[in-house]
Amino acid sequence: MRRAISLAARGLGSTSPNPVVGCVIADAAGRTVGEGFHQRAGGPHAEVNALTAAGRLARGATAYVTLEPCNHTGRTGPCAQALIDAGIARVVYAVGDPNPQATGGADTLRAAGIEVTAGVLTDEAEAGNAAWLTSVRLGRPHVTWKYAASLDGRIAAADRTSRWITSPESRADVHRLRAESDAVVVGSGTARTDDPHLAVRGIEGAIQPLRVVVDTNATAVRAGARILDDAAPTLIAVADDAQTGLPGVVRLPRTAGGLDIPALLAALHERGVRSVLLEGGPALAGAFVAAGAVDRVVGYLAPVLIGAGPAALADAGITTITEALRLDVTETVRIGPDLRITATPKER
User: Fold this and answer.
1) Are 258 and 215 in contact (CB under 8 A)?
2) Closest CA to 128 of 67, 210, 50, 63
3) Which residue in 47, 68, 180, 279 is the catalytic one?
4) For residues 313 and 285, is the Cβ–Cβ distance under 8 A?
5) Cβ(132)–Cβ(125) under 8 Å?
6) pTM
7) Which residues are CB-contacts of 252 (< 8 A; sequence separation ≥ 6)?
8) Is 204 a known active-site residue?
């Protein structure tokens, strides 16, 4: 199952709005005879790719799948039936399918006389498929807030200079995060100060994410901005009463602190976005935290001290220590000289 989970991860960034899924087929002696993963939306599912690789060796074998085999016909046929037709004797899966249109695969398999085991390495498989599962369960995209800071938590110096706090290795790793995401989101402050490009660079075959600027008053993005080029699609989110002649604009309700974050996520979800990489500054990050819309935090900490300067997170609606958003650290990794820390909110 761990091999299936690692295979599933190869589909990150290319399967949306579908899940990432991996499948390993092993014969009675435990030898792998076929494996596959869902490579792109509309293409064959992981089980079909693995069955194709296994050929006749699939008969009497066990299929290990990260997600309950689907039970419906969409752009491809039902995987449960494909496993039955191939003569699979046993199916082991990690996560039950919460999609009401596709669930029931396990029941179909059992009715055909196939032994089914569920719930193997569920937590690991859910973590790898967090974007799609969040979409199905909550009806909004999964949000990863990424930031880069000094060891004392500053994202810039007192004079607002910030290039570069972290290393080239960390900046390259951020492009991997972008490539795995459906949309990259920044705020008006970042757009005004950095004129960011936000496209993926240095990753062959990457599908460019939707570039989104939260520009409430429609004052930060001007004609000629780098984000308006044709390297990737762009969406400018503005308040419904803002005046702008820019193309690619979505109008959303205004709140006291800026744009309505749930409305923004709903608009992105309607456009097929299942995973968001939030690269905005401290104000936008604070708005997302206050809205309860941060599902994962990825912080790149550089071994440098700055002292005065803006902190990574601004007002997040937290006024006392008892309201602090507590996190579970899920990974710490050295990236060049820096430390990458990944964490998820405890209450999620």
Assistant:
1) no
2) 67
3) 47
4) yes
5) no
6) 0.91
7) 237, 238, 239, 240, 259, 260, 263, 264, 267
8) no
